Amino acid sequence: MDWTAILQASLSFFLVLTALALAYLLVRIGGTFSRINDFLKRLDDEVIPLLSKTQVTLDEVNSQLGKVDDMLGTLVNVTNKVETTSRVMQSVVTRPVKKAAGLSAGVSEAVSHLISGQRGR
User: Cα angle at 70 between 66 and 75, to 5 degrees?
Assistant: First the structure.
């Protein structure tokens, strides 16, 4: 046997060993891709309904927020009307009281002036 035959046999053995290793790796990678494909199918089956439910929930929340906005607008209107009414009532009540206080002060001053004027005579 010469060296050329030994080198060719060694090279053939190395190539067969490399082919077997590559075949093993390709089978393992194929299994991994199969598991990834199954995972993606399950993810698709679970995420799409979840996103759909989330969209429905967000639509309902937006609807409720619209109602809250309407209620707050109504509350602001009612508050403004109450404020206006309280100002009018304050005006209605305080003006006569001020006038009555002024009148009573004037009468009191006049009476005290008359009394002091009679004493001086």
Answer: 145
Q: Cα 104 to the chain's mean position, in Å? A: 61
User: CA 65, CA 116: separation in Å to the nearest integer?
Assistant: 74
Q: What is the sign of the dihedral through the CA atoms of 33, 34, 39 and 40?
A: positive
pLDDT average, residue stretch 40-50 = 91
Vertex 89, ends 83 and 94: CA angle to 5°? 125
Mean pLDDT of 30-40: 95
The closest of 36, 39, 40 to 28, measured between CA atoms, is 36
Cα radius of gyration (the chain)? 50
For the chain, domain boundaries: 1-93
**Distance of alpha carbon 87 from its chain centroid, rounded?**
37
